[in-house]
Amino acid sequence: MSTIALVEASADSTHYYSSTYLPRMGMPTLGAVLARAGHACDIWFQAMPGFDEERLFEYDIVCISSLSNTIDEAYRLADALTAAGRTVIMGGAHVSFLPDEALDHCPYVVIGEGEDVLPALVDALARGGPLDEIRGLAYRSPDGRGRASISATAGLVDFERLPSPDFSLSPQVAPGNTPPIVTTSRGCPHDCSFCSVTSMFGRKYRFKSSAQVIEELRPLKHRSVFFGDDNIYASPRRAKALLRDLIAADALPLRWSGQMTVKAALDEEFLGLLRETRCRIMYIGIESVDPETLKGYGKAHQADAIAHCIENMHRYGIGVHGMFVVNADDGPDAVKKIVDYAIATDIDTIQICALTPFPGTAAYDEFKGRLLHTEWKYFDGMHVVVDPSACTAYELQMTIVRELKRFYSLTRVLGAYRRGRAWRLKYRAGGYYIARRWVRENREYLSRLRDELCPRTRTWRAGEPIVAPEPVPGGVSR
Ligand code: B12
Ligand code: SF4
Hints:
single chain; alpha/beta; 6-stranded parallel beta sheet; globular
């Protein structure tokens, strides 16, 4: 029987979450599925201590997962392993939508959810058996020339019957040191223009049973846990039932955080449960404070619900991490408005992403003609990659940097303490550090934005500082 490695590739660039690494659930879930089917497999996380690239060459089959910003590293690994005669299979949110690109680096690409497709592919490879019946697979024709046509996308997996992610399959994870992330649902009906979750996992919510979530939480009891669900409040009834079940089973982690919609903060019963279950901070996709922009993103909430949401959260002693997206048609004023708003409403921490057209999103179809480049490592929300209409790309990027620095200024870090929310100091200090480190790391990208990538930035004078003094000069409207 073949030996299998599952690898989550990483990138070492700074982003909002780079200070604490949390893996995605794909590899540990696929590992559990393969192990249940009797396959010998190990899981490797490139971003975790103890990653040993040489060891990957010892396996017969290497399965590589990546996002857009980690795809360069994934392709580098795939090229090296393929050249060494290993069978490489790729999957995940980037290659699922650009399988042709990935087939230049490996012979097999799994499209969408992998739990049904991967075991079927591994079995077919062992048998030398036909691939054309496996749905959700793109592959090179056996002679290596040309491509077999992509078989239809596989249906969604039966989520309730999946085994729990198994981190014990990773030589890098010591017993008792399971990464503190648990995911209880899949899918999302909202289909926001900048997000690939709906096209990847379907419109329908699928949930794990409370019993399974409780089992997954047991080893994490004394830890601070992140729920990796796109929206823990996907079904209000189920969310409340789950939290009650956690209380009843005494399965609450020390503290927890997760992602939810603005709407959830208008539900006082839910807020009460968040407090009771020791929720510390929720990540909320506020996206914009402008009603028109919100409509364009396809967001369900109204701008005037946001202030109420933040007020409610604070009333229940729960922090708010506001996630904002700057549209390609937004100018510097829109970014400034976001930070003014965040400061006025006392949001605890924020992230401001530049609209990033990830493959598989409506934004990708809309903006692919306006991309400044397709250097995927910069597709992480931190970099402006679309030619904006209201100002130059450099001006937009520098405004985001400047406004982030305003939000995470030293004064605002030192003044962050609030009774019951002392952690704000540490989190804001993290933001202060990340905003500055990002600029240091990205000087080259900033010069390229200023001098080459965006044609309209030519109005910048050579030698002008990369980190612009205020006010940001050089904005040229169309
Ligand atoms: C939890 C989460 C996080 C966490 C932790 C995870 C992490 N390190 O990435 C945090 C908060 C740290 C985070 C950060 C970021 N995230 Co995030 N995150 C998620 C989220 C909500 C869940 C991830 C998860 O566990 N999914 C469930 C598992 C089962 O799915 P999966 O890992 O993709 O695997 C399945 C399939 O993809 C497939 N598959 C995957 N790999 C492979 C490989 C093979 C060989 C096969 C056969 C199959 C296969 O099979 C798996 C099982 O079905 C997803 C959205 C989502 N629902 O997936 C976004 C998502 C992954 N994040 C995204 C982004 C952009 C980011 C950031 C870059 C930017 C940001 N938003 O701040 C950062 C940095 C990420 C990084 N490089 O490390 C995007 C990625 C889009 C893209 N094309 O790149 C997503 C898809 C959301 C979106 N906007 O569309 N994220
Ligand atoms: S951003 Fe959130 S609400 Fe919108 S489609 Fe993605 S997961 Fe769903």
